[in-house]
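agent> fetching stored inputs for the calcium ion docking request
agent> found them:
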Amino acid sequence: MAAVAQPGPGLESAAVRSPLRGASTASWLVDAASLIELYPQDIRSTNSLTIKDFVSKTLRAALSVAMLGTAMNAQAAIYTVNSTADSSDGSCDAANCTLREAITAALGGDQILFSSLFNTPQTISLQTVLPDIASSISIQGSGATRLTVRRDPSAGTNFRVFNLIGGFTISVSISGMTITGGNLTAGASGGGINSATQLSLSGVHVTGNTAGSGGGVSLGFANSEFANCTFSNNSATNVNASGGGGIFFLGLGGHSLRIVNSTISGNSSSANGGGISLFSAGGSNTVEIINSTIANNTAVNSGGVRTYAQNNSTATTTLRNTIVAGNMPINMATETLNGATAVFQSQGFNLSNNYNGVFVAQASDITSNPLLGALQNNDGQTPTHAPVFGSPALDAGHGSGSFTDQRGFLRVVDLPGIANAAGGNGSDIGAVEAQTVPVSDVILRAGFEDPIP
Ligand SMILES: [Ca+2]
Ligand SMILES: [Ca+2]
Ligand SMILES: [Ca+2]
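agent> prediction call returned; pasting tokens
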């Protein structure tokens, strides 16, 4: 039985109604923070833009950008960043190429790589916003523990780190870096990354970013996939918007976000959806979560994952071999308005201290404290929560097609002496696959400062 929260008297209710009625209200504009950020020219040019108009306009814009990119870039190029500076002399070349210069130079199909300078930890500290990314490029960092791209804490203005525009025909991939320090006001979304394109994130740590909604990442109107990523300690600060401390995903007709082998931890929202907020504005939209850990996020409600749908649309969040635990005040909730449908679906082998009644648990779903260690470096490029001694996650899951865990370690490791789940294959539930049986920390506690509880 779904736990359906009542649509409150807040701005979201008005946000739902006004566009379809062609009305203009301040509340629609506030709650549509993501729309504004994704397509500023469209939303800001009219207060009576309908969803239909919106799609039509953005489709044309996307196609024109895609055609332009094709025409201008018959041969893909590689740009190699060899400087941590945040300057631009107008040329990305062997003598000097900054990230800012590389982004300016790159066209559809191009790659941005990083020189051997970045084989040791380096930080690119931005004083001003980077150029928008409007074509299908890939930015391949040297690893989240080695390359940090941040808004400099002393920068004179607030801005996000990456802004991806151009529409759903554009596909951008970002890998191997930490993205941090993005800082936007409550009226804007996507503190670390704002994307109106297909976005592939791999091995990225999005941490310590702030925005009104989508504190870490805000996505809209395109399919995306995140693998081997951590979203930690990001904040969504707008009490009247749709939250998503870690991730805000706005779908409009058949869009999906797939999250695999990833960790979403310690994010917060002043509204709902502390970890993830799925907002379905039309059609059927899905967040698919596999082999991941969603822990210790906070919000007004739905601290872990919020699944929201409006106006006869459908929002679905699926969970497979995933830990959702320790989120406050509750792990998961659905909300709907105007005849919509919002559901969670278990695809089995999940672990939670409380499913909050969002679905009927399958036989392979466990209700228990997961016994996870702190978010820390567990020998991967991105921080993770490892199961500790006695964790019910150990060997209780199914690898679900993954051959590595978030850290790149072997998945599946069938631990000796720990029974596998019925129908499982010895995989652990969550983002981390223990390579050996975790030792009892009772011994450590007895030998060090912590008393045995
Ligand atoms: Ca240069
Ligand atoms: Ca076993
Ligand atoms: Ca295992």
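agent> quick read of the result: The CA atoms of residues 259 and 432 lie 14 Å apart.
agent> awaiting further instructions
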